[in-house]
Amino acid sequence: MSYQSICAVPGVNAWGMKEGKYGLALIEAEGTAAGVFTENLVKAAPIQLMRKQIKAGKLEAVVVNSGCANAYTGKRGYADAVTITEYAGDVLGKKPSRIGVASTGVIGRYLDLPLIRHQCEEVAPKINHTEEAEIMAARAIMTTDTFPKHALVERDGFSVGGICKGSGMIAPNMGTMLAFLYTDAKVDAEQLRSALKQATRRSFNRVVVDGDTSTNDIALCTATGEAGKVNAKEFSGALEECCRILAEQIARDGEGASKLLQITVTGAKKEDDAEKVARTVIESPLVKTAVYGEDPNWGRVVAAAGRAGVKFDPDAVSLWISDGGKMQHPLVKSGEIIADLAAAKKAMGGKKVVFTLDLAAGKAEATAWGCDLTEKYVEINGKYTT
Predict the structure, then answer these.
(1) Domain range list for the chain
(2) Does the domain spanning 260-382 belong to CATH 1.20.120.910?
(3) CA-CA distances (angstroms) from residue 324 to 54, 88, 346?
(4) How many CA atoms lie within 13 A of 15 on its CB side?
(5) What is the pLDDT of residues 336-370, one digit of tens each?
(6) Which DSSP string do the residues of 115-138 spell out, in sequence order?
(7) Where does this protein hold substrate (predicted)?
(8) Residue 165, annotated ligand binder?
């Protein structure tokens, strides 16, 4: 069996099903847990519930529905979120207070509780620890995604696996994405919260597809502890790598996207500065459309960097472009234009476009991911509910 993600982690079992637009996944794993949530003021009912339940620092399972976000649904929506945990608790034999819940789909619609009850009853008996199980769970939570997203990072003595969904309504500050991460490392709640927060900041919060921040974004991480204690720094690095792999897949699968866009900013005074510049460039519609048209209009990158609110000397920056391979084509060197536009255009012809921008102001760096902006994005979102 060739595992891709969560079921490679000892102590994790899963399954999922999809009926048209509506899917449901159950993931069973007991252990220490932590969560990171959307910063949108309009928080969906499951987010409101999980922000309370995660304070206990323990989870035994997670139930996820797709097709309806259960967002902006008031008291009824909150009660429905509680009801879903009760459904999952009934079929799994667990306390509802130890069940994580997440939803994704259309905002401003109420859940079809009879359907979710039916799906819980269908999924629970099939939960197992196989590659097929993790694939079924990842597919069940998809909405406009075109492929299921998996990541697995293995270290000497422990592993970190994750699945996620995300394609549109993606912007920093958790951006619509759901991520479910698992490790067999033994990690206490405080350490897990700190590691997840940092990993999220350096991965999911650096993905921009369209500039919209969802009402439902959530990342949950559960540590089963079956591998025993591990080096804290090594664990944090593995968790960050797992999140980064998933984040790049979200960017690659941006709604209507034809190209993955990556920007690495180096030479910043501090990481926050590099992050601000990278995020500003990656979310620029002018940069995105130039990448789509394979137009080497690199000046848009420098212009976007200049409005990020970070101080640097424009006459000292350097800029390169590549297709993700080892060969980087210089565009600007220490403020001097040296662009070979033919070579730059050729570098934009593949499925990945990478800009590297050196601010020449320090030693900090950051990378952000996004995608091009195409007519297909408008088509998808112009008819999302119809």
Answers:
(1) 6-251, 260-382
(2) no
(3) 39, 43, 12
(4) 15
(5) 999 999 999 999 999 999 999 999 999 999 999 99
(6) HHHHHHHHHGGG-BSSHHHHHHHH
(7) 143, 165, 176, 255, 381, 386
(8) yes
Q: Is 386 annotated as a binding residue?
A: yes
Q: Do the annotations mark residue 381 as ligand-binding?
A: yes
Evaluate whether 56 touches 97 at the Cβ level (below 8 Å). yes
Angle of helix 74-92 versus helix 45-53 axis, rounded to 10: 60
Q: Write out 267-325 in H/E/C secondary structure.
A: EECCHHHHHHHHHHHHCCHHHHHHHHCCCCCCHHHHHHHHCCCCCCCHHHCEEEEECCC
Tens-digit pLDDT profile for residues 189-247: 999 999 999 999 999 988 876 555 678 889 999 999 999 999 999 999 999 999 999 99
Catalytic site includes residue 130: no
Q: Parallel, antiparallel, or unpaired for β 158-166 and 177-186?
A: antiparallel
Q: Annotated binding residue at 128?
A: no
Q: For residues 120 and 96, is the Cβ–Cβ distance under 8 A?
A: no
Q: Which of 73, 104, 144, 176 is an active site residue?
A: 176
Same fold, 6-251 and 260-382: no
Residues 6+ apart with CB under 8 A from 17: 23, 24, 119, 122, 123, 136, 140
Q: What CATH number labels 6-251?
A: 3.60.70.12
